[in-house]
């Protein structure tokens, strides 16, 4: 069973983010302005640049998979389901909800489409017929492998260009970006290996 991963959902207005970034990057005018230490200004600008680089890096990281998924009528939620079920055959629906941090209704819509189109099957173990487990079909595995290969190649090239010890530094940075209360669970989850043996219960009817 995967470690319980609870993600607090926060709904953020992008206009507020942009406004905050602009205030951080630009000096304030007016008599009520509090003078900042000039030595802090380059540091603040550097951080804003990192925020922007992260936006662009994620844009390009998802671009190729998005194109393939779009041709199938799928989106990033479908991609995440395929990825984590591929990595964890027999993943419980309840655990997948925790991993993705989305509502039951949202996951139900995505799962229905993946099941109806033959990418995922839902099963119920004999020991607990109330529980639903997820497996990829051959078709689903082929798609998940294709998407993973694209993104793995991009990361591999970036690490190679970033120089020695980049992989460890990148892993530490990404883990540090995760909230404190979820970091240990995420670390445990992402170090799981695919293909673990699980009970293969009777397949549900669609």
Straight-line distance between termini: 24 Å
Number of DSSP-assigned strands: 4
**Sheet with the most strands: spatial strand order:** 1-3-2-4
Mean of pLDDT: 80
The radius of gyration computed from the alpha-carbon positions, rounded to a whole number of angstroms, is 21 Å
Number of helices: 8
Residue share in β-strands: 5-15%
Order of helices and strands: HHHEHHEEHHHE
Q: Which blocks of ≥5 consecutive residues have pLDDT under 50?
A: 9-33, 194-206
The major sheet is characterized as: 4 strands, antiparallel
Query: What is the molecular shape?
Result: globular
Structural class: alpha+beta
Helix content: 55-70%
Summarize this structure as a short list of keywords or feature phrases:
alpha+beta; 206 residues; 8 helices; disordered C terminus; globular; four-stranded antiparallel β-sheet
Commentary on this structure:
The chain has 206 residues and is α+β, with helices and mostly antiparallel strands. Helices cover 61% and strands 6% of the residues. It is built from eight helices and four strands; from the N terminus they run αααβααββαααβ. The chain has a four-stranded antiparallel beta sheet. The longest helix has 32 residues, at 40-71. The two termini are 24 Å apart.
In short:
With 206 residues, the protein is α+β, with helices and mostly antiparallel strands. It contains 8 helices and 4 strands.
